[in-house]
Amino acid sequence: MITPEFKASILKELRLDDYEIKDETLANQIPGWDSINHINVISAIEKDFSVRFKSIEILKCKNIGDLQNLLTSKLAKK
Amino acid sequence: MEARNIWDLWSKHSRTTPDKDAIVVWKAGEEPFRWSFSSIVSQAERYTLHLKKAGIKKGEVVAIIIRHNKEFFPLYMGIVGLGAIPAVLAYPNPRLHPDKFRQGIIGMSHRSGLDWIMTEREIHPILTPLISEGTVKGVHFPLEFPLQEQFSDEEVKLVREKRGAVTPDEPMLLQHSSGTTGLQKPVLLSHGAIVRHADYYGKSIQVTEEDKVVSWLPLYHDMGLIAAFHMPLAFGITSIQIDPFEWVLAPVLLFEALSQEKATLVWLPNFAYNLMADKIHEEEFEGLRLDSLRMVINCSEPVRYQSHERFSNHFKAYGFREEALATCYAMAETTYAVTQSEPGKVPAVVFTDREKLGKGVLLYTDSPESARVCVSSGKVIEGCRVEIVDEEKKPLGENLIGEIAIQSVSMFDGYRNYPEKTAEVLKDGWYYSGDFGFMKDGECYVIGRKKDIIIVAGKNIYPEDVEDTLNKVQGLLPGRVIAFGADDTEVGTEVLCVIVESEATTPKEKADLRVKILENALANDQSISRIYIVPPRWLIKSSAGKPSRKHNKERILESNEYLMA
Questions:
Q1: Closest approach of chain B CAs to the CA of A31, in angstroms?
Q2: Which residues belong to CATH 3.30.300.30 in chain B?
Q3: Distance CA B359, CA B378 (A)
């Protein structure tokens, strides 16, 4: 389940007013989330939630739902 | 290397070092897959038999459009084993509109004469119309071939006999020189060119049996295909291959593979030095070491001294040695390398007067403020000759700027189906590169592209210099700047124009940015007449991933938008 805070963090970085993001949404389906911007989006989420992702953790995420779950697990460990 | 064709070498390694790793296919989070020399050659032969059964014939061009997959490597070799000509093409980016991808392939098929396409079922619907529109006879899905199928002894014998009869002058592969898809020049290389190049280039970097190459480079690029795949395979050394898409998302993968496999050789384009020094978190480096590296070879775009410095300073804490920094000057037309810096020695640098350089005059200086630091691309490798020539193609000698002309024993056989373009660049055995540079103490310094040079009121301006300057301006997206010259009929000369990608949106943000750009340019004696501020991802990239000056210039001049000054 995508939380409003997580969604807001992504939209802010991509300068989107709104865009539907579901668990099964793929990163490259979101306008602006390309290979160049990828590192910036991840950095923005890290900054907004004060967490740090490892590259391998990111690579294992098949969709935005996986990334949300990864974030949730990081926040739970804090 | 005494070999009639490239297969002779592969075959030899499968007999002499059958269990040695040939290709290690690296996938993040998974145990790497290891092809030994004997297993990859056996698998390649299976592909040859299946390709033959599918009706593919000797001399036909077989395009491969497949994502990072362990089967790519024996498939490629299997095509060579049949005497057909592999051409590796980029798999479409999910963002690329299918029509655009298809148009690119159609353009390429007409130019290159693609006969067959080996691909994945997923993009079949995009490629199928090609069969009626282009030269393509059929599309196959080699990842679905029933490779366990047995062939008769007679069929196997026939394939081996035909393979053995391939002579050095027969075509071996088709690679596309950098350019926008569909407009790239198809470079045809013979078996002899590849074998000779592997031999001479290997000597120049002092390859030993202990060396291991690690690479994330796409195989449709000459650096990935020749330096990181063909060269190690020809020498019988291991090549560790990383998925380029995974590397973009996680650049640390290169160092993970390198550290675990104790790789010794890496080729990188200049931008990767900056990216890795800036974007990899320190904690991700835990347990990783770079001590095994003996050469990190900077090639394929102008070498920036600052990039080397940044990379070296950032990674020395992890065992990186400065003397592992290396440079190379290469191009698809000569198979790959022309010059190479000496192993174990930091490439030479010279400080040249930027202003004089702009006028085509080489003046060495001690003053760093007014200098452009030029990094040597090394000495000419065995089997090649380099001359710096003037506009009449007369040799200039050392310490003078001119076009770099090359002779090579591994020269291409011309652009396929493009005799007029071949005649433009290949004359009396010399290849005129279109690159500008100079020689000093036997070392080659490449400073820009001839055709990109902007001549403003008689003064030569290298767009790379302007782009370098603007890349330091805060508020611009690094590496997303291009400079070009445009005719100004009012003034009667070319004017210097730049297109910059920026996230600036409001008029005030854009106006502030414009002032910053002009200030920085003026501080470097660059007078910019027109500034176009465009949004992120506006710039069109060539297949090599670099913003294309030519295509972006055409696009911006047609658009009448974004002009700021």
A1: 10
A2: 453-559
A3: 24
Question: A28–B95: do the CB atoms touch at under 8 Å?
Answer: yes
The alpha carbon of residue A74 is apart from the nearest alpha carbon of chain B, in Å, by 16
Assembly ipTM:
0.75
Question: B494 vs B26, B453, B527, B552, CA distance in Å?
Answer: 49, 11, 12, 17
If residue B436 lies in a helix (H) or strand (E), which one and from where to where?
strand B430-440
pTM: 0.81
A21/chain B closest Cα distance in angstroms:
17
CA distances for B478 relative to B464, B469, B470, B482, angstroms: 13, 11, 8, 11
Q: Which amino acid is at A10?
A: I
Cβ of A54 within 8 Å of Cβ of B503? The answer is no
**Domains held by chain A: number:** 1
What is the topology classification, in CATH, of domain B453-559? GMP Synthetase; Chain A, domain 3 (3.30.300)
B202: Cα within 13 Å, side-chain hemisphere: 25
| Environment class of B140 (CB within 10 Å of its CB; exposed 0-12, middle 13-18, buried 19+) | middle
- B-interface mutation test, from A33, A42, A52, A55, most B Cβ less than 10 A away: A55
Q: With an 8 Å Cβ cutoff, are B284 and A54 in contact?
A: yes
CATH architecture designation of domain B347-450: Roll (2.30)
β strands within B13-98, DSSP E: 21-26, 33-36, 61-65, 85-88
Quick check: B200 and B234 in contact, CB under 8 A? no
CATH code, A63: 1.10.1200.10
| Residue B266 tokens, joined | 């890496």
- Return residue ranges of chain B for CATH 2.30.38.10: 347-450
Taking CB atoms and an 8 Å limit, are A38 and B248 in contact across chains? yes
Pick one of 3.40.50.1100, 2.40.10.240, 3.40.50.12780, 3.40.50.720 as the CATH number of B6-249. Answer: 3.40.50.12780
Taking only the tens of pLDDT, chain B with its 565 residues reads 566 799 999 999 999 999 999 999 998 878 999 999 999 999 999 999 999 999 999 999 999 999 999 999 999 999 999 999 999 998 887 656 677 678 778 878 888 889 999 999 998 888 877 776 668 899 999 999 999 999 999 999 999 999 999 999 999 999 987 543 445 689 999 999 999 999 999 999 999 999 999 999 999 888 999 999 999 999 999 999 999 889 888 889 999 999 999 999 999 988 788 878 877 888 888 899 999 999 999 997 778 888 899 899 999 999 999 999 999 999 989 999 999 999 999 999 999 998 888 778 899 998 878 888 999 999 999 999 999 999 999 999 899 999 999 999 999 988 988 898 899 999 999 999 988 999 999 999 998 777 777 867 546 677 888 898 898 888 888 889 999 988 775 554 578 899 999 999 888 888 888 878 887 877 666 778 888 999 998 999 876 677 889 889 989 988 877 776 4
Which one-letter DSSP state was computed for residue B382?
T
**Alpha-carbon span B118 to B79, nearest angstrom:** 10
Residue A30, domain extent: 4-77
Collect all residues of chain B within an 8 Å Cβ-Cβ radius of residue A59: 28-29, 246, 249-250
Which of A17, A45, A54, A59 should be substituted to probe chain B, the one whose Cβ sees the most B Cβ atoms within 10 Å?
A59
